[in-house]
Each structure stands twice: as structure tokens, then as C-alpha cells.
Amino acid sequence: xxxxxxxxxxxxxxxxxxxxxxxxxxxxxxxxxxxxxxxxxxxxxxxxxxxxxxxxxxxxxxxxxxxxxxxxxxxxxxxxxxxxxxxxxxxxxxxxxxxxxxxxxxxxxxxxxxxxxxxxxxxxxxxxxxxxxxxxxxxxxxxxxxxxxxxxx
Length: 153
Known about the structure:
Elements: H1 3-18, H2 25-39, E1 44-51, H3 56-59, E2 62-67, E3 70-75, H4 84-90, H5 95-107, E4 112-117, E5 124-130, E6 140-149
Antiparallel strand pairs: 1-2, 1-6, 2-3, 4-5, 5-6
């Protein structure tokens, strides 16, 4: 994707996600983190995507499988495992770590933060962050969806 198209996609995501902004992001975070915790899910899979001015391999959608709270596998769109170096660099993402991303953005007083939480599970399914109004191209959008819990034996 070319830089102008990436910029357009980031701007669109920030605008769309911003439509549901809350007046109390820390309260929303706490409420939804509690909702997620009440699910008791330590084993699940979900689709993750990052939009940013990052290397291409960091922005491709992937399926992340989590076991015992840790990333167990990352699968690309062709159904192939993602190499371990790319996993270590870009995809050590769990639902709990997404809550950490939101918390960090709140703590550092990001210029713009828009978060949408999944209505049933409470996890952040869309996070758009612009850390600094004066800095160009540091915006990031993270999406998580199609979460499937694994059954506990």
C-alpha cells in the first residue's frame, strides 16, 4: 500500500473509530477489562491487523492463537505459520496486551485515542492512537476480531 493510501486509511480509521469516543477512557478501559477478565479465557484465537507506517510484514492481517495466556502460533492469510522472528518483532499480541496498549496511551496522554470494545467479550476490537499532534506518521490503528474461545477440558 502506498504512503498516501496508508495515510488515507489511517485518517479514515481515526475518524470512524472516533465517532464513539467516550468522555472517560480510563473508566471504559477498567469496565471492559473487567468484562474480559470475567470471561476467564486463556485459550483463544483472533484475527489481528495493524495499520501504521511500518514494514509491510507488520501490517498484514494474521490469526493469532493464544494458549495459557501466551501467543502459541501466528498464521498468515495463506494459512502458513509466520516465521518466529516476525512473531517476536510484530505479533506478540494477546487480548491482554491490547488492554495494555490502551492503558499506555491513556497514561502518556496521547493526543487522540479512540477505542471500540467488543459488546459481548469487552476486548478492544479497534484502537486508533495519534500520540502527538505535531508528529507526522506516528499514528497507529490496531484491530482485533473474530475471536474464538477454545474449550477448556
